[in-house]
Amino acid sequence: MQELEELRKQLGNVATGPTWQQSLELTRKMLRDKQNKKNSGQRLPVFPAWVYERPTLLDFLTGSGTSTDAAVPIGTLPLASQEAAIVEDLLYVLVGVDGRYITAQPLTGRQSRTFLVDPNLDLSIRELVSRILPVAASYSTVTRFIEEKSSFEYGQVNHALAAAMRTLLKEYLILVTQLEQLQRQGLLSLQKLWFYIQPAMRTVDILASLATSVDKGECVGGATLSLLHDRSFSYTGDSQAQELCLYLTTAASVPYFEILEKWIYRGIIDDPYSEFMVEEHELRKEKIQEDYNDKYWELRYTVVQRHIPSFLQKMAGKVLSTGKYLNVVRECGHDVTCPPKEVIYTLKERAYVEQIEKAFGYASKVLLGFLMEEKELVAHLRSIKRYFLMDQGDFFVHFMDLTEEELKKPVDDITPTRLEALLELALRMSTANTDPFKDDLKIDLMPHDLITQLLRVLAIETKQEKAMVHADPTELTLSGLEAFSFDYVVKWPLSLIINRKALTRYQMLFRHMFYCKHVERQLCSVWISNKTAKQHSLHSAKWFAGAFTLRQRMLNFVQNVQYYMMLEVVEPTWHVLEKSLRSASTIDDVLGHHASFLDGCLKDCMLTNPELLRVFSKLMSVCVMFTNCMQRFTQSMKLDSELGRLTLEHGTMQGPPTEAERAEERTRKELARKCLAEHVDAPQLASSFEATINKFDKNFSAHLLDLLARLSVYSTSDCEHGMASVISRLDFNGFYTERLERLSAERSQKVAPSVPGPRGPPAPAPRVAVPAQ
């Protein structure tokens, strides 16, 4: 007996050798660490160490239970006695205990159990034994699987599968017990044992096959259900095998469907073992106002492909969206629950589709109604449009009048609190005072100019993101006008729609329009200054007409571009957005429509094409430099108005002026006008000024022609029909078209190589029409 116990101990040590033991322990540790990391607040329980030191306690490691006497050599026994002894041994082996003449071979890994049969056994008996032993091998595989997968780390689906298999093994053990009763009564022969065990053989074989497949695939959660579902389909035609697989799949799917029901009916994930198809990531919703992307909405909950059951693969997207919608409403403090209906496994996938579709429709309706009605999403978007897309005309007139001097300063010299106060004053003085969300509007002085911001935003979704984020800020000193922008305070859950990425695009559109409005105001200021110049008799300064003409062309350009952006881009696109929002059925539709609106505005406003943007910025720069030049030149012409101001002050402080004082005043004004006229008519000044105006005219015309040529190319090659509207506005009388044709002809003549041809009469020179200017 002592020698037998030592032998069995050695066999147990071999069966649980270091390699296999370490592999299992490593797998358990990885699963345990992952689950504990996810459930940081509550660590998962662990079995005591002796469970892992002595695994598979029911699989050929316990005492045999046979007689303590030494086994009689079976070859010396008569055939009937051999059969009786082998039947007794088989009954032991079928329940995982070594017999006298049949013993289990040690395992070296996840292999199937093999047995060693006494070689002296009769051949006819050995043949029947070899047919029955696969049942014992399958039982051994299933037993080891059940004990291993019952560990906490393998998840609830594997726990449920192991429990279902254990239930079936109980039926199997009852059968073995009944056979043992027959054997004790002397009514069980080897042939009868083979006959009675055959129905159970098929069942145990299928269980072993499933256990082996789950083990090899290291399946957990949805992966286990996918394997069971696919196996159920593979047994189509074998009703008993398919019924068995359906029973196992139904049992294993219960905990998974409980997680699914909580997710699609309440928006809650209760998945301590990380086996559900939707995975939650710890992200703060407050950070959504700072991120330049949809990270919170896209990454807070994600689909784990390997955990999607194959029968739910087509509905994975809707499962994810359904829970996300309910989760958003729940995080806002509203307890929302979809009318629950139990999800039960079936081979008919249509049943899942109907239930998930119903839950999805309910969740979409709840969240969309919550955002549209309670949180007033459309009203907030209208408020943003009012300020960022310059829809509130009187507000901007007041605001730009109040902040004009402040915004001319370098950005480092500007006091943000002063700008905030001026913004508040402009809001209260205009019709924007009726806007209930006006207090959400804030001032933002950006650290970079519009072009840099544009490239940053456009690079968010490209490989250039890191390079743009880590790029050094511009070394140029920004003025307040170049750095100025609005910002808007958006609270959860509206920040899902109006996130930082969307606000940055609004800011880009605003800065573009705001700068255009500033250039228009500067050109109008030049127009006012020119009105003063017309009071003087500048006989020799006929070149003033060229400056006035150029100013008007610039003003026409800026105003038409503004009109195009506001009335032909923003307004139609906004009406499409409002109509789409009214017909939207899900929050993802809302996100898509809003993104399309912003992308369309950016594209049609020429902000997504670097070439167009570069040419347009050069045109704006030429206009600003021209206005600065004209304002410096006409500064001396303000002498008349300065004299008028001094006269007014004199009359105010000392009483009404006398007749003598008035005569003296008129004399001084006449002298001032005469001096001014002589100063302006000076040949040197006239020549210098005329050359400067001609240079501005040349640069402006060149850049404008370049812009029109590029717009023409994009409107035809890229089917950007909106660009044709800009061309028709800027070139309403065909003036620039003729110049473009002339330049094109000149370039073609310069580029065309001189190819010698056959001698003959010379060809007539091409005639190019030059329009009067």
From TrEMBL:
Comp. bias regions, Pro residues: 755-765
Domain Gamma tubulin complex component C-terminal: 377-736
Gene3D superfamilies: Gamma-tubulin complex, C-terminal domain (1.20.120.1900)
Entry keyword set: Cytoplasm, Cytoskeleton, Microtubule
Region annotation Disordered: where it falls in the sequence: 746-773
Keyword Zinc-finger: no
Classification via Pfam families: GCP_C_terminal (PF04130), GCP_N_terminal (PF17681)
Keyword Cytoplasm appears in the UniProt entry: yes
Main location: cytoplasm
One annotated GO molecular function: microtubule minus-end binding
GO cellular component entries: centrosome; ciliary basal body; gamma-tubulin complex; microtubule; nucleoplasm; spindle pole
Location relative to the cell: Cytoplasm, Cytoskeleton, Microtubule organizing center, Centrosome
Family classification: Belongs to the TUBGCP family.
Biological function: Component of the gamma-tubulin ring complex (gTuRC) which mediates microtubule nucleation. The gTuRC regulates the minus-end nucleation of alpha-beta tubulin heterodimers that grow into microtubule protafilaments, a critical step in centrosome duplication and spindle formation. Plays a role in neuronal migration.
Protein name: Gamma-tubulin complex component
